[in-house]
């Protein structure tokens, strides 16, 4: 028996250029799928790429990049909460 993963989906409204809509219509027809599934896949791909990029940037941070205790104190004086 396969485990079925269900997710809640939310409806959103977007305004796109007519040329983009025409391309989506053509893609949906060629792929035999819905425009919403194409947009969802594109958004998921974009978010995955951003997360990967941010993870690479974060992995470059080392502990010696952090300010010293004295520098933190100076920064604290400059920042008003």
3D structure, described in words:
The protein is mostly helical and about 80 residues long. About 60% of the residues lie in helices and about 0% in strands. It has three helices and no strands. It is elongated. About 0% of the residues are buried.
Please provide the ordered H/E string of secondary-structure elements: HHH
Portion in strands = under 5%
Outline the biggest β-sheet.
none
How many whole angstroms does the radius of gyration measure? 23 Å
Please report the total strand number as a whole number.
Answer: 0
Output the number of helix runs: 3
Fraction of residues in H or I helices: 55-70%
Apparent shape: elongated
- Low-pLDDT ranges: none
Mean residue pLDDT: 87
Structural class: mainly alpha
Distance between the termini: 55 Å
A few lines on this structure:
The chain has 81 residues and is an all-alpha fold. Helices cover 60% and strands 0% of the residues.
Topology overview:
Layout: H1 18-31, H2 35-59, H3 69-78
Keywords:
single chain, 81 residues, mainly alpha, elongated
